[in-house]
């Protein structure tokens, strides 16, 4: 949403797609089959090793359903080689993380860190989440996402669970925050890579990436207080929460970019920010005034656009 609003604000022209959705589904849609098989086997309780192995076999078989994806022996061998090379970073990272986690566990440092974490939070879940975010970002700066998450599994995550978070939420919160290090300066490795390709300033690109991904820093706090965003709960509550959260994200992007249907005045940007906070808050009651503020903002935008069109005419 942020990228779309910025493109509209800058009046950037769109690009014609090289291939239609229908052609994509016709030529490559069958490759969804191995993903479905993988997810089914994991949900059904099979081991990840068996699920992954059968997923690979299914992918090779499914590739023969269309000429556009058909793999011959050379292609299969090349894919296996690429997969093995891609595993090297995962193996080395998890091995190093395993040494760290083992040391933390054997020395009792994990329990001490967890106790210190709870004491610093003072029993406050919000403060605990803020501290957890800071630790996840710091760990993510120094190591890849997977080992950063594994280290937190032995230190931060148990403390978050002790503060009242469900285990799956605590794990997802820590993992989510670890992923954000790749767009957060001073690390921002993904942003620096993109800057090198584009020939842009790496430091400015890193801060721009953080600005464009602002909502990603907020989403974990949203699902920590309301698991409906993780599709947990009654279906009607899930639908309502996801809908209001999407509206809130839209308002936040508009407030940050200064553009909605047209350029926003300073007062309109303030109201867009207020609407974003109310709509994204973990309470459907607050979504009502948030929706009212958004309705006022849209009405003001439509009136302003109509006046501008009349003046131009």
Describe the protein:
The protein has 313 residues and is mainly alpha-helical. It folds into 2 domains: 88-225, no CATH class; 231-313, no CATH class. It has helices spanning 2-9, 21-28, 32-43, 48-63, 73-107, 109-121, 125-142, 145-154, 156-162, 167-179, 189-198, 202-212, 214-225, 235-257, 266-280, 284-312. The longest helix has 35 residues, at 73-107. The radius of gyration is 24 Å and the shape is globular. The two termini are 30 Å apart.
Please supply descriptive tags for the structure shown above.
313 residues; mainly alpha; 16 helices
Quick summary of this structure?
This protein has 313 residues and is mostly helical. Helix content is 77%, strand content 0%.
Largest sheet: number of strands, sense, barrel closure: none
Q: Which radius of gyration do the C-alpha atoms yield?
A: 24 Å
Total domain units: 2
What would you call the structural class? mainly alpha
Number of strands: 0
- What oligomeric state best describes the polypeptide chains here? single chain
Shape: globular
Helix content: over 70%
Separation of the first and last Cα atoms:
30 Å
N-to-C SSE string, H for helix and E for strand: HHHHHHHHHHHHHHHH
The portion of residues forming beta strands comes to: under 5%
Determine the number of helices (DSSP H or I, runs of at least 4 residues).
Answer: 16
Average of per-residue pLDDT values? 83
Low-confidence stretches: none
């Amino acid at each position: 949403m942020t990228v779309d609003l910025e493109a509209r604000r800058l009046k950037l022209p769109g690009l014609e797609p090289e291939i239609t959705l229908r052609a994509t589904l016709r030529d490559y849609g069958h490759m969804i089959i191995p993903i479905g098989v993988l997810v089914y086997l994991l949900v059904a309780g099979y081991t990840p090793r068996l699920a992954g192995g059968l997923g690979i076999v299914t992918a090779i078989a499914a590739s023969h359903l269309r000429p556009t994806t058909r793999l011959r022996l050379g292609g299969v061998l090349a894919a296996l080689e690429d997969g093995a090379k891609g595993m090297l970073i995962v193996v080395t990272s998890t091995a190093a993380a395993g040494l760290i986690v083992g040391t933390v566990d054997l020395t009792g440092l994990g329990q001490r860190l967890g106790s210190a974490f709870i004491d610093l939070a003072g029993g406050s879940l919000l403060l605990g989440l803020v501290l957890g975010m800071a630790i996840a970002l710091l760990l993510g700066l120094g190591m890849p996402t997977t080992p950063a998450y594994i280290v937190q599994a032995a230190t931060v995550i148990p403390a978050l669970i002790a503060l009242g978070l469900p285990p799956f939420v605590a794990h997802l919160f820590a993992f989510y925050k670890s992923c954000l290090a790749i767009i957060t300066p001073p690390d921002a490795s993904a942003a620096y890579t993109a800057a090198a390709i584009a020939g842009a300033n790496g430091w400015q690109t890193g801060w721009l990436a953080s600005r464009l991904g602002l909502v990603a820093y907020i989403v974990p706090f949203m699902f920590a207080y309301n698991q409906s965003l993780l599709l947990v709960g009654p279906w009607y509550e899930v639908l309502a929460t996801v809908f209001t959260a999407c509206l809130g994200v839209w308002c936040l992007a508009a407030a940050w970019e200064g553009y909605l249907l047209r350029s926003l005045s300073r007062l309109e940007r303030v109201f867009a920010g207020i609407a974003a906070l109310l709509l994204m808050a973990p309470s459907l009651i607050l979504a009502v005034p948030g929706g009212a503020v958004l309705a006022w903002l849209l009405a003001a935008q439509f009136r302003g656009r109509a006046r501008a069109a009349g003046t131009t005419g």
